[in-house]
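Subject: complex prediction, re-run

Hi both,

The earlier run crashed halfway through, so I resubmitted it with identical inputs.
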Amino acid sequence: NAGVTQTPKFRVLKTGQSMTLLCAQDMNHEYMYWYRQDPGMGLRLIHYSVGEGTTAKGEVPDGYNVSRLKKQNFLLGLESAAPSQTSVYFCASNRRRLYEQYFGPGTRLTVT
Amino acid sequence: GQQLNQSPQSMFIQEGEDVSMNCTSSSIFNTWLWYKQDPGEGPVLLIALYKAGELTSNGRLTAQFGITRKDSFLNISASIPSDVGIYFCAGQVYGGSQGNLIFGKGTKLSVKP
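This time it finished cleanly. Structure:
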């Protein structure tokens, strides 16, 4: 049971480049989330999904898009990266009706 | 938006000491969660609380769901070096969208020099 996995672990992008972060979970959880973590700001919700084929905006969705084509995967896309998107990104998941979210190991993204 | 006030922001511990931290809010919560994050890792769930007044332990860690439902406390007894890290509280606001947790900004535990 791998839990929540994220790829890649590290990435450096130039301003304007695009990329996709992949999150996978093998716990059959219905809900999945993408957060960003910045010094002094704590964890902030970007987008989330309550089931396959559904997505919703969180607190800081601008500049990001997401897709949930399969229940076990949640993708986070940056279409045109900006230095303000330099951050550590975490994926999390939980079972419906339970609030205990389980986190992946994170992706450290630097945009120059 | 809703906020959680987590305190202290940082503290130094000496091996064997007991540690206390708390989270407070002006909103009512129906769930409180406590996480620990080590450097370069994702947050790991320590304790989940679902009822006002509930007291739950996980080894040397004990957490309480405040009676007013607006606060929660985490205690670590007889601290050891591996307790160093950042501890986050998180809560599910009563009546809020399920899954939208509110996170505190963390309490950083470091070893006393």
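DSSP finds no helices and eleven strands in chain A.

- K.
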